[in-house]
Amino acid sequence: SLKWTRNQLFLRSRMLQQTRRVNSWNAFIKAQLQDANEGLGRGDRLKLTAFIAENKARLLRDYGRLTVAEKQAYNVDVLKSREAKNRTTRANPKAVKHDMNAAFTSMDREVRFHYVIVLRWMALHARTGMEGFYVAIRGGIEDLVEPKIFFTEKSQKFVQDVLGIEPQHLGLKLEAFVISKLDECVTLNRQRPLNKLISDCRELIQDELEFFLMEKNVSGKVRMNYTNYERAIVERYGVELYNWPLPGTVKNPSKVGGRAHVQKLLDALKSHSCKWVSLSEDDLRDRMTENRECQARGEQVYVPRKARVRVSQHASKEMVDSDESSSSSSSDED
After folding, report:
1. SS3 track for 145-162
2. Once rounded to an integer, what is the mean pLDDT over residues 43-57?
3. 104 vs 130 pLDDT, higher one
4. Fewer beta carbons under 10 A from the terminal one: N or C of the chain?
5. DSSP state, 194?
6. Rounded to an integer, what distance in angstroms lies between the CA atom of residue 228 and that of residue 294?
């Protein structure tokens, strides 16, 4: 069918592949390597593996001192460099105008209507039935490009009938908002969704755990285990999440309570008042003894693994009958 064919074409399209999430450690190393190679010729530049091997102690120390904002700044630089690879920059505004007009005009005239962007919409629509639109406007008063818009049929009807505005007017209003720099004057007091705050907490806990264990020369990726935190993290690796700011023990950020508790945890993680620390051998021994005593008193410190359910497979009726018949025949022979 047509729907099946679209799924086969679009689901495997490289245009739908998502880029990896930026890792703060990798972004930091990239920036440090670029600084070290600045001014060096092509044959004299340091290789990544050699650079890390020679400066591992210093890099770990400097990375550990970074604040959350500084790590995010490194991540932003990586995202900007990714975008720069996919964008052609022209210094002349008139050249930009002619380039944009020629590109959109050619796409309008081609059978492949707005090929690159519309292909994405068609792929999403084929998989999920989604509808949508895009509006592209100039970013500054020096630019000469007029608004470029695209609406699917249902999204255009929504804008006209529900919002009471023509699609072209929506593009012009957005352009006026950007050109007049109203975005710098208007302050929007919107709270981040709770699920985003929870995701931020998990990400900070996981990233800091990975970095801390890397300092301890633990190989392989270690996932944070909230269910069996004491056994799988504390006792196994000799580390703990120190100064947990909420009542009770360390638990999944999605189970700490409402927005106030999640925000309190996030603030503590960002300020490093709640952070990973290493336990000494004596502290670890005392911790393990205390855990076993609590478990003996009935407190659930160690959560047992779920037993694997084994599905018994019964022989088919034909096999049973044949066995019975063969046994009966052998008895008759005896």
Report:
1. CCCEEEECHHHHHHHHHC
2. 87
3. 130
4. C
5. H
6. 14
Q: How far apart are CA 83 and CA 107, in angstroms?
A: 22
The backbone torsions φ and ψ at residue 108, rounded to the nearest 5 degrees and listed phi first, read: -65, -35
**pLDDT average, residue stretch 86-97:** 53
Give tens-digit pLDDT for 241-254: 999 999 989 999 99
Give the DSSP per-residue string, 74-120. Answer: HHHHHHHHHHHHT----S-HHHHHHHHHHHHHHHHHSSSTTHHHHHH
- Amino acid, single-letter form, for residue 76: V
The terminus-to-terminus CA distance of the chain in angstroms comes to 64
Residue 90 phi/psi, 5-degree rounding, is -120, 135
Q: Give ∠ CA 171-136-105 in degrees, rounded to 5.
A: 105
Beta strands in the chain (DSSP E): 133-136, 148-151, 239-242, 275-278
Q: Which token pair is 295?
A: 């478990």
Write the pLDDT tens digit of every residue in 122-146: 566 565 666 778 787 877 777 777 7
**Within its chain, how far is the Cα of 303 from the centroid?**
29
- Which two structure tokens, joined as six digits, stand for 90? 């022209």
User: Strand, coil or helix: what is 233?
Assistant: helix
SS3 239: strand
Q: What is the rounded CA–CA span in Å between residue 66 and residue 325?
A: 78
Ramachandran angles phi, psi of 241, nearest 5°: -85, 100
Q: Which of 22, 124, 134, 135 minimizes the C-alpha distance to 83?
A: 22
Length of the chain: 334
Question: What distance in Å separates the CA atoms of residue 185 and residue 182, rounded to the nearest whole number?
Answer: 5
DSSP state of 14: G
